[in-house]
Design goal:
This protein is 40% helix and 18% strand. With 278 residues, it is of the alpha/beta class. The strands form four sheets. Strands 2-1-3-4-5-10 form a six-stranded parallel β-sheet, with helices on both faces. A two-stranded parallel sheet has the order 6-9. Helix 1 links the parallel strand 1 and strand 2. Helix 2 runs parallel beside helix 3, helix 3 runs parallel beside helix 4 and helix 5 crosses helix 7. The protein is globular and about 55 Å long. The structure holds NADP nicotinamide-adenine-dinucleotide phosphate.
Length: 278
Amino acid sequence: MRVVVTGSEGQLGSDVLELLLSNGIDAEGADLPKLDITDKNACMDFLAQKKPDWVVHCAAYTAVDKAETERELCRAVNSTGTENIVLACKECGAGMIYISTDYVYNEPGEHEIEETAQPSPLNWYGQTKLCGENAVVKNLERYFIVRTSWVFGENGGNFVKTMLKLGREKDEISIVCDQVGSPTYTKDLAKTIFEMLNSDRFGIYHATNSGFCSWYEFACEIFKLSGISVKAIPIPSSEYPAPATRPMNSRLSKKKLLENGFSELPHWQDALKRFLNH
Ligand SMILES: NC(=O)c1ccc[n+]([C@@H]2O[C@H](COP(=O)([O-])OP(=O)(O)OC[C@H]3O[C@@H](n4cnc5c(N)ncnc54)[C@H](OP(=O)(O)O)[C@@H]3O)[C@@H](O)[C@H]2O)c1
Protein backbone atom coordinates (compact mmCIF):
# COMPACT_ATOMS: atom_id res chain seq x y z
CA MET A 1 0.00 0.00 0.00
CA ARG A 2 1.32 3.46 -0.91
CA VAL A 3 0.15 6.44 1.17
CA VAL A 4 0.69 10.20 0.90
CA VAL A 5 0.25 12.22 4.11
CA THR A 6 -0.42 15.94 3.65
CA GLY A 7 0.46 18.34 6.49
CA SER A 8 3.20 15.91 7.51
CA GLU A 9 5.11 18.57 9.48
CA GLY A 10 2.09 19.31 11.65
CA GLN A 11 0.89 17.73 14.91
CA LEU A 12 -1.20 14.90 13.47
CA GLY A 13 0.46 14.46 10.08
CA SER A 14 3.91 13.88 11.58
CA ASP A 15 2.59 11.13 13.89
CA VAL A 16 0.58 9.49 11.11
CA LEU A 17 3.62 9.44 8.85
CA GLU A 18 5.84 8.03 11.60
CA LEU A 19 3.32 5.29 12.43
CA LEU A 20 2.95 4.26 8.79
CA LEU A 21 6.70 4.14 8.18
CA SER A 22 7.29 2.15 11.38
CA ASN A 23 4.74 -0.40 10.12
CA GLY A 24 6.61 -0.82 6.85
CA ILE A 25 4.07 1.13 4.75
CA ASP A 26 5.37 2.91 1.65
CA ALA A 27 4.43 6.38 2.93
CA GLU A 28 5.53 9.86 1.94
CA GLY A 29 4.88 13.18 3.62
CA ALA A 30 3.91 16.39 1.81
CA ASP A 31 3.89 19.80 3.44
CA LEU A 32 4.92 23.36 2.62
CA PRO A 33 7.13 24.17 0.76
CA LYS A 34 7.27 20.78 -1.03
CA LEU A 35 3.54 20.86 -1.78
CA ASP A 36 1.25 23.87 -1.49
CA ILE A 37 -2.27 22.43 -1.53
CA THR A 38 -3.73 25.76 -2.69
CA ASP A 39 -1.98 25.15 -6.03
CA LYS A 40 -4.28 22.84 -8.01
CA ASN A 41 -1.74 21.92 -10.69
CA ALA A 42 0.86 21.11 -8.06
CA CYS A 43 -1.62 18.77 -6.32
CA MET A 44 -2.53 17.07 -9.60
CA ASP A 45 1.11 16.61 -10.62
CA PHE A 46 2.23 15.43 -7.18
CA LEU A 47 -0.40 12.71 -6.83
CA ALA A 48 -0.19 11.67 -10.51
CA GLN A 49 3.51 11.06 -9.98
CA LYS A 50 3.21 9.29 -6.59
CA LYS A 51 0.12 7.21 -7.52
CA PRO A 52 -0.89 6.55 -3.90
CA ASP A 53 -3.63 4.11 -2.88
CA TRP A 54 -4.60 6.51 -0.09
CA VAL A 55 -4.09 10.14 0.85
CA VAL A 56 -4.33 11.04 4.55
CA HIS A 57 -5.19 14.74 4.33
CA CYS A 58 -3.98 16.46 7.53
CA ALA A 59 -2.84 19.77 5.98
CA ALA A 60 -5.01 22.63 7.16
CA TYR A 61 -5.20 26.22 8.30
CA THR A 62 -5.79 25.63 12.03
CA ALA A 63 -5.56 29.08 13.68
CA VAL A 64 -9.24 29.24 14.64
CA ASP A 65 -9.30 32.83 15.99
CA LYS A 66 -6.95 34.29 13.38
CA ALA A 67 -9.16 32.72 10.69
CA GLU A 68 -11.84 35.31 11.45
CA THR A 69 -9.57 38.00 9.99
CA GLU A 70 -7.49 35.87 7.57
CA ARG A 71 -10.64 34.57 5.91
CA GLU A 72 -9.31 34.24 2.38
CA LEU A 73 -6.18 32.33 3.40
CA CYS A 74 -8.20 30.01 5.63
CA ARG A 75 -10.67 29.34 2.83
CA ALA A 76 -7.89 28.84 0.27
CA VAL A 77 -6.25 26.11 2.39
CA ASN A 78 -9.23 24.36 4.02
CA SER A 79 -11.84 24.59 1.25
CA THR A 80 -10.04 25.11 -2.08
CA GLY A 81 -6.92 23.22 -0.94
CA THR A 82 -8.99 20.22 0.15
CA GLU A 83 -10.94 20.30 -3.10
CA ASN A 84 -7.63 20.29 -5.00
CA ILE A 85 -6.49 17.20 -3.10
CA VAL A 86 -9.90 15.56 -3.62
CA LEU A 87 -9.80 16.14 -7.39
CA ALA A 88 -6.22 14.86 -7.56
CA CYS A 89 -7.31 11.72 -5.63
CA LYS A 90 -10.21 11.23 -8.02
CA GLU A 91 -7.89 11.53 -11.01
CA CYS A 92 -5.40 8.96 -9.75
CA GLY A 93 -7.95 6.65 -8.10
CA ALA A 94 -6.76 7.18 -4.52
CA GLY A 95 -8.99 6.91 -1.47
CA MET A 96 -8.90 9.75 1.04
CA ILE A 97 -8.97 10.20 4.79
CA TYR A 98 -9.95 13.79 5.52
CA ILE A 99 -9.46 15.12 9.04
CA SER A 100 -12.31 17.39 10.08
CA THR A 101 -13.46 18.97 13.30
CA ASP A 102 -16.07 19.20 16.06
CA TYR A 103 -16.37 22.88 15.04
CA VAL A 104 -18.69 21.88 12.18
CA TYR A 105 -21.42 21.47 14.84
CA ASN A 106 -23.59 23.80 16.86
CA GLU A 107 -25.54 21.35 19.04
CA PRO A 108 -26.55 23.00 22.31
CA GLY A 109 -27.32 20.74 25.27
CA GLU A 110 -25.37 17.98 26.94
CA HIS A 111 -26.16 15.05 24.68
CA GLU A 112 -23.61 13.12 22.64
CA ILE A 113 -23.65 14.25 19.02
CA GLU A 114 -24.07 11.58 16.32
CA GLU A 115 -22.47 11.85 12.87
CA THR A 116 -25.98 12.27 11.41
CA ALA A 117 -26.50 15.62 13.21
CA GLN A 118 -26.86 18.60 10.91
CA PRO A 119 -23.58 20.59 10.73
CA SER A 120 -23.96 24.30 11.45
CA PRO A 121 -20.53 25.86 12.05
CA LEU A 122 -20.33 28.84 14.40
CA ASN A 123 -17.00 30.14 13.11
CA TRP A 124 -15.19 30.68 9.81
CA TYR A 125 -12.67 27.87 10.37
CA GLY A 126 -15.57 25.44 10.88
CA GLN A 127 -17.28 26.68 7.74
CA THR A 128 -14.18 26.17 5.63
CA LYS A 129 -13.62 22.66 7.06
CA LEU A 130 -17.24 21.80 6.24
CA CYS A 131 -16.71 22.98 2.64
CA GLY A 132 -13.75 20.58 2.54
CA GLU A 133 -16.00 17.75 3.76
CA ASN A 134 -18.56 18.55 1.06
CA ALA A 135 -15.90 18.33 -1.66
CA VAL A 136 -14.91 14.87 -0.38
CA VAL A 137 -18.49 13.56 -0.27
CA LYS A 138 -19.34 15.02 -3.69
CA ASN A 139 -16.38 13.57 -5.57
CA LEU A 140 -15.12 10.39 -3.92
CA GLU A 141 -16.48 6.97 -3.05
CA ARG A 142 -13.57 5.57 -1.05
CA TYR A 143 -13.31 8.08 1.78
CA PHE A 144 -13.29 8.51 5.53
CA ILE A 145 -14.14 11.88 7.08
CA VAL A 146 -12.78 11.89 10.63
CA ARG A 147 -14.22 14.59 12.88
CA THR A 148 -11.91 15.00 15.84
CA SER A 149 -11.44 17.60 18.59
CA TRP A 150 -9.00 19.42 20.91
CA VAL A 151 -5.91 17.89 19.30
CA PHE A 152 -2.53 17.79 21.06
CA GLY A 153 0.73 16.31 19.85
CA GLU A 154 4.46 16.86 20.07
CA ASN A 155 4.88 18.68 16.75
CA GLY A 156 3.20 22.07 17.06
CA GLY A 157 1.37 24.44 19.36
CA ASN A 158 -1.65 23.28 21.37
CA PHE A 159 -3.63 23.88 24.59
CA VAL A 160 -1.42 21.59 26.71
CA LYS A 161 1.76 23.42 25.73
CA THR A 162 0.08 26.81 26.29
CA MET A 163 -1.09 25.79 29.79
CA LEU A 164 2.36 24.44 30.70
CA LYS A 165 3.89 27.77 29.68
CA LEU A 166 1.27 30.02 31.34
CA GLY A 167 1.14 27.82 34.43
CA ARG A 168 4.85 28.36 35.04
CA GLU A 169 4.71 32.12 34.31
CA LYS A 170 1.53 33.23 36.14
CA ASP A 171 0.06 33.03 39.63
CA GLU A 172 -3.50 32.51 38.43
CA ILE A 173 -5.20 31.65 35.12
CA SER A 174 -8.86 31.96 34.10
CA ILE A 175 -10.07 29.07 31.94
CA VAL A 176 -13.39 28.52 30.18
CA CYS A 177 -15.53 25.92 31.98
CA ASP A 178 -18.70 25.77 29.87
CA GLN A 179 -17.30 24.26 26.66
CA VAL A 180 -17.15 20.48 26.94
CA GLY A 181 -15.41 18.05 24.59
CA SER A 182 -12.69 15.41 24.29
CA PRO A 183 -8.97 16.17 24.18
CA THR A 184 -7.31 13.98 21.54
CA TYR A 185 -3.71 12.80 21.43
CA THR A 186 -2.29 12.61 17.89
CA LYS A 187 -0.53 9.28 18.57
CA ASP A 188 -3.87 7.66 19.46
CA LEU A 189 -5.72 9.20 16.52
CA ALA A 190 -2.93 8.07 14.18
CA LYS A 191 -3.70 4.44 15.18
CA THR A 192 -7.38 4.89 14.24
CA ILE A 193 -6.34 6.33 10.89
CA PHE A 194 -4.07 3.32 10.36
CA GLU A 195 -7.02 0.99 11.05
CA MET A 196 -9.11 2.91 8.51
CA LEU A 197 -6.49 2.42 5.81
CA ASN A 198 -7.10 -1.31 6.18
CA SER A 199 -10.90 -1.08 6.21
CA ASP A 200 -13.68 -0.63 3.67
CA ARG A 201 -16.22 0.71 6.18
CA PHE A 202 -16.11 4.12 4.49
CA GLY A 203 -18.00 7.20 5.70
CA ILE A 204 -18.11 9.96 8.29
CA TYR A 205 -16.83 9.15 11.79
CA HIS A 206 -16.08 10.79 15.10
CA ALA A 207 -12.70 9.82 16.52
CA THR A 208 -11.40 11.36 19.75
CA ASN A 209 -9.95 10.09 23.00
CA SER A 210 -12.63 8.72 25.36
CA GLY A 211 -14.31 10.75 28.10
CA PHE A 212 -15.42 14.37 28.19
CA CYS A 213 -14.21 17.42 30.12
CA SER A 214 -14.29 21.21 30.01
CA TRP A 215 -11.22 23.26 29.07
CA TYR A 216 -11.03 24.15 32.78
CA GLU A 217 -10.98 20.48 33.84
CA PHE A 218 -8.44 19.73 31.11
CA ALA A 219 -6.18 22.53 32.40
CA CYS A 220 -6.50 21.36 36.03
CA GLU A 221 -5.40 17.86 35.00
CA ILE A 222 -2.42 19.31 33.09
CA PHE A 223 -1.35 21.31 36.17
CA LYS A 224 -1.89 18.34 38.51
CA LEU A 225 0.11 15.88 36.40
CA SER A 226 2.99 18.32 35.86
CA GLY A 227 3.17 19.53 39.47
CA ILE A 228 2.36 23.15 38.58
CA SER A 229 0.74 25.00 41.48
CA VAL A 230 -1.01 27.84 39.65
CA LYS A 231 -4.48 28.98 40.77
CA ALA A 232 -7.01 27.94 38.07
CA ILE A 233 -10.22 30.00 37.94
CA PRO A 234 -13.25 28.61 36.05
CA ILE A 235 -15.04 31.24 33.92
CA PRO A 236 -17.94 31.13 31.43
CA SER A 237 -17.21 31.72 27.72
CA SER A 238 -19.04 35.06 28.03
CA GLU A 239 -16.15 36.32 30.20
CA TYR A 240 -13.52 35.20 27.68
CA PRO A 241 -14.44 36.91 24.42
CA ALA A 242 -12.52 35.39 21.50
CA PRO A 243 -12.75 36.37 17.81
CA ALA A 244 -14.18 32.93 16.90
CA THR A 245 -17.28 31.57 18.63
CA ARG A 246 -16.91 27.95 19.76
CA PRO A 247 -19.67 25.40 20.39
CA MET A 248 -20.49 24.68 24.07
CA ASN A 249 -21.26 21.06 23.37
CA SER A 250 -18.52 19.09 21.62
CA ARG A 251 -19.46 15.70 23.08
CA LEU A 252 -18.88 13.56 19.98
CA SER A 253 -20.43 10.09 20.13
CA LYS A 254 -18.02 7.30 19.17
CA LYS A 255 -20.78 4.68 18.83
CA LYS A 256 -20.44 4.46 15.05
CA LEU A 257 -16.66 4.04 15.25
CA LEU A 258 -16.98 1.09 17.64
CA GLU A 259 -19.92 -0.48 15.79
CA ASN A 260 -17.84 -0.59 12.63
CA GLY A 261 -15.05 -2.54 14.29
CA PHE A 262 -12.55 0.25 15.01
CA SER A 263 -10.75 0.30 18.36
CA GLU A 264 -11.84 2.61 21.15
CA LEU A 265 -9.28 5.35 21.78
CA PRO A 266 -7.91 5.46 25.35
CA HIS A 267 -9.32 7.88 27.93
CA TRP A 268 -8.07 11.46 27.52
CA GLN A 269 -6.49 11.43 31.01
CA ASP A 270 -4.42 8.38 30.06
CA ALA A 271 -3.46 10.08 26.78
CA LEU A 272 -2.43 13.26 28.57
CA LYS A 273 -0.25 11.29 31.00
CA ARG A 274 1.57 9.58 28.11
CA PHE A 275 2.01 12.90 26.28
CA LEU A 276 3.50 14.59 29.35
CA ASN A 277 5.82 11.63 30.01
CA HIS A 278 7.02 11.55 26.42
N1 LIG B 1 -5.59 21.26 16.28
C1 LIG B 1 -6.82 20.95 16.70
O1 LIG B 1 -7.18 21.17 17.87
C2 LIG B 1 -7.77 20.28 15.75
C3 LIG B 1 -9.08 19.99 16.20
C4 LIG B 1 -9.97 19.36 15.33
C5 LIG B 1 -9.57 19.04 14.04
N2 LIG B 1 -8.31 19.36 13.62
C6 LIG B 1 -7.92 19.00 12.25
O2 LIG B 1 -6.92 18.02 12.34
C7 LIG B 1 -6.00 18.15 11.24
C8 LIG B 1 -4.59 18.19 11.76
O3 LIG B 1 -4.48 19.28 12.69
P1 LIG B 1 -3.09 19.65 13.35
O4 LIG B 1 -3.38 20.23 14.68
O5 LIG B 1 -2.14 18.53 13.17
O6 LIG B 1 -2.66 20.87 12.39
P2 LIG B 1 -1.24 21.61 12.29
O7 LIG B 1 -0.33 21.14 13.37
O8 LIG B 1 -1.56 23.06 12.17
O9 LIG B 1 -0.67 21.05 10.92
C9 LIG B 1 -1.20 21.45 9.67
C10 LIG B 1 -0.06 21.39 8.67
O10 LIG B 1 -0.59 21.80 7.41
C11 LIG B 1 0.37 22.68 6.82
N3 LIG B 1 -0.20 23.57 5.82
C12 LIG B 1 -0.82 24.77 6.03
N4 LIG B 1 -1.10 25.33 4.84
C13 LIG B 1 -0.68 24.48 3.88
C14 LIG B 1 -0.68 24.52 2.46
N5 LIG B 1 -1.18 25.56 1.77
N6 LIG B 1 -0.15 23.47 1.77
C15 LIG B 1 0.37 22.41 2.44
N7 LIG B 1 0.42 22.32 3.77
C16 LIG B 1 -0.10 23.35 4.48
C17 LIG B 1 0.91 23.45 8.01
O11 LIG B 1 2.11 24.11 7.66
P3 LIG B 1 2.46 25.50 8.43
O12 LIG B 1 2.63 25.15 9.86
O13 LIG B 1 3.71 25.93 7.73
O14 LIG B 1 1.29 26.42 8.19
C18 LIG B 1 1.10 22.32 9.02
O15 LIG B 1 2.33 21.67 8.87
C19 LIG B 1 -6.43 19.40 10.49
O16 LIG B 1 -7.23 19.01 9.40
C20 LIG B 1 -7.30 20.16 11.48
O17 LIG B 1 -8.25 20.95 10.84
C21 LIG B 1 -7.41 19.96 14.45
